[in-house]
Write a structure and sequence with these properties.
mainly alpha; 185 residues; single chain
């Protein structure tokens, strides 16, 4: 059983599972998205006293907090107990391109040059994480949701603004990867 969980799931298993979750959410009247949890947590902490945006019945969003808690616990379980011992394999061209950006690929999913405590406690690392977090927060608020909410929930509901938002997310990612990222590193 663990050997099945320890490998990538094919599209014909993961795709229908995502579709099932979306069907259940639509049936229950919910919307899928992760960024709405931040609004709920701020409301629970009392932000409604400062801004009207945080004045809503957060108790109706408990299911979403349970979902994000499950995602965090599932991520921990997957990384701790189900992690494949085989290093991630990428092409030689990608490895060369990473070296040009001063990244030594070691088979890990996330580069330690960005995603480690040592990198965070540098001026550049802290600046990237803090500025990146602020930009993501601003972008999700401005777009009316995050990538998962728009791409999975909004597009499945045939919402035109979600399609525009997803195209914008991808264009922003391409601009960051090919134009801004080489300037930073």
């Amino acid at each position: 059983m663990l050997s099945f969980l320890n490998q990538l799931w094919p599209w014909y298993i993961s795709g229908p599972l995502i579709a099932l979750i979306m069907f259940l959410l639509l049936w229950a009247g919910g919307k899928f998205g992760v960024s709405s949890n931040l609004r709920t947590l701020c409301t629970i902490a009392g932000a409604g006293k400062i801004a009207s945006f945080f004045q809503f019945d957060w108790k109706k969003q408990i299911w979403n907090l349970v979902f994000i808690g499950g995602a965090c616990i599932g991520g921990f379980i997957a990384n701790t107990f189900l992690k494949s011992p085989t290093p991630l394999a990428i092409s030689e061209n990608t490895t060369k391109a990473l070296k040009e950006l001063h990244f030594d690929f070691s088979g890990e999913l996330l580069p330690p040059e960005i995603f480690s405590w040592n990198a965070f406690f540098t001026l550049k690392g802290a600046f990237i994480i803090i500025l990146g977090g602020m930009l993501v927060g601003f972008g999700t608020r401005w777009a009316g949701g995050c990538t998962s909410g728009h791409a999975i929930s909004g597009i499945s509901n045939l919402q035109w603004p979600s399609l525009i938002a997803v195209v914008g997310f991808f264009l922003g990612g391409l601009i960051m990867t090919h134009l801004l990222f080489p300037l930073i590193f």
